[in-house]
Amino acid sequence: MNNESREVPLLFTPIKLRSVVARNRIVSSPMCQYASDDGGPEEWQLVNFGRFAMGGCGIVFGEESAVEARGRKTHHCAGIYKDSHIASYRRITDFIKSLGAVPAIQLGHCGRRASQHGPLKDRALLSEAERPWQGISPSPLPPTPGGAIPREMDESDIRATLVAWREAAQRSIDAGYDICEIHGAHGYLIHQFLSPLSNLRSDGYGGGLEGRMRYALEVVEAVRAVWPQDKPLFFRTSAVEGAGGVWGIEETLALTRELQQRGVDVVDCSSGGVGGDGPMPGVPRVPGFQAGYAREIRRRTGMPTVAVGMIADAHHAEAILRDGNADLIALARGLMDNPNWPLHAARELGYADPLGLVHQREAQRLRLLEQHSKEYPPGSAIEIPFGPGEQVSYSWQDGIAARNDRR
Q1: Helix (H, G, I), strand (E, B), or coil: what is residue 251?
Q2: CB 292 within 8 A of CB 323
Q3: CB–CB of 79/85 below 8 Å?
Q4: Which parts of 117-273 fold into alpha helices (H)?
Q5: Cβ proximity of 153 and 138 under 8 Å
Q6: DSSP secondary structure letters along 351-407
Q7: 26: which strand partners?
Q8: CA distance 405 to 397
Q9: How far is CA 90 from CA 71, 113, 230, 231, in A?
């Protein structure tokens, strides 16, 4: 690395993943929107995800998108389980690409966490009048005490879902996505197979760690079989389960080594989703609380990782990358709060041309704003004209002085 490249913040150094090049290391993390119509995206998604590309993110994920209709949590969850969805998603991916970002999709299946309302209604179960459906899971255990009992999957169910994963990946290609992430975290179907708290099976998909990992690995194989070899595949994992859990970092490391052998390029490090009477405590939500998982996976396996979780300070994000703890930094709610976070982070880190991150329509006006700031530095002696022969003094502390009454 030469001196010139050292001066570029690593956060704003392009990264190549197979043939896909992201302009920087900032990722808009997948965020469920609960605003879809029978799985298909609406204007909300175009605007919501488009604004993160406009703000300068290198990679823009959509939301978790179900691979089949019964894999949605709510009636309003996103999905890509019908060919009619493709054109709607293509409109979004084309827009994201036009803004210089890489469009990415997260494929998922909720399993037993099906047939509920969204977070605005506290994820309450659907009533009979609200068209509920039965979830599926490796074992007939509810996701929470008193919750709905899922149907235990037989091998035909497993085969059917693997077909759904593969077909959803194919539709994602047709929809213009350049990165695919498999959601194996947060207590969804893949995680339900992985955890001994939710998987009590005694067949080849249960028992010890090897059996419990089998479904996850078969999903990866099904997706990688159709996902282009020149495009990267991510996998999101709950590196630890959290309160009452048993799955921890050592199990995640074992899973990661198997993922590597099957063509996964990046592990997205999250946590939580399955709990019970295990000994694990809850994970505190503090800045960078999951970055240690990304560091451990990267250090022990060599797998590139994503750090996500309460990362809001640009210098903190840069330090995570500089210290070799992760390869990408993901933000979710931080971008909802400030969609232009990449632009402001670039300024804070001394990036040479922060306005190069935004579209030229915006950059042109923002450059004028910067120019005006330089023309009149704070403390300058300023007079504001009120007419051809009248000026009123301006103070940087108090603003425009009161005008003398000339009536």
Answers
A1: helix
A2: no
A3: yes
A4: 155-174, 189-194, 209-226, 249-261
A5: yes
A6: -S-GGGGS-HHHHHHHHHHHHHHHHS-TT--EEEEEETTEEEEEETTTEEPPPP---
A7: 329
A8: 23
A9: 22, 28, 20, 17
**Alpha-carbon distance 233 to 164, whole Å?**
17
**Token representation of residue 85:** 């969805």
Distance of CA 23 to the CA centre of its chain: 17
Provide DSSP, 43-109: HHHHHHHHHHHHTT-SEEEEEEEESSGGG-SSTT--B--SGGGHHHHHHHHHHHHHTTPEEEEEEE-
CA distance 134 to 71: 10
- Between strands 102-108 and 305-308, the pairing is unpaired
58 phi/psi in degrees, rounded to 5: -80, -40
Per-residue model confidence as pLDDT tens for the chain (407 residues): 333 445 799 999 999 999 999 999 999 999 999 999 999 999 999 999 999 999 999 999 999 999 999 999 999 999 999 999 999 999 999 999 999 999 999 999 999 999 999 999 999 999 999 999 999 999 999 999 989 999 999 999 999 999 999 999 999 999 999 999 999 999 999 999 999 999 999 999 999 999 999 999 999 999 999 999 999 999 999 999 989 999 999 999 999 999 999 999 999 999 999 999 999 999 999 999 999 999 999 999 999 999 999 999 999 999 999 999 999 999 999 999 999 999 999 999 999 999 999 999 999 999 999 999 999 999 999 999 999 999 999 999 999 999 876 55
Q: Which residues are catalytic?
A: 188
Q: Which residues of 95-129 are buried (b: 16+ CB within 10 A; e: fewer)?
A: bbeebbbbbbbbbbbbbbbbbbbbeeeeeeebeee
Render pLDDT for 170-189 as a digit per residue (tens, 0 to 9): 999 999 999 999 999 999 99
Contact 243, 233 (CB under 8 A): no
CB 48 within 8 A of CB 36: no
Say which residues have a Cβ less than 8 Å from residue 342's Cβ, sequence separation at least 6: 24, 26, 55, 56, 57, 58, 357
Q: How distant, in Å, are the alpha carbons of 27, 99, 151, 308, 324 from that of 110?
A: 23, 32, 13, 21, 33
Place of tokens 């991510």: 234
Cα→Cα distances 273→183, 278, 283, 342, Å: 12, 13, 11, 29
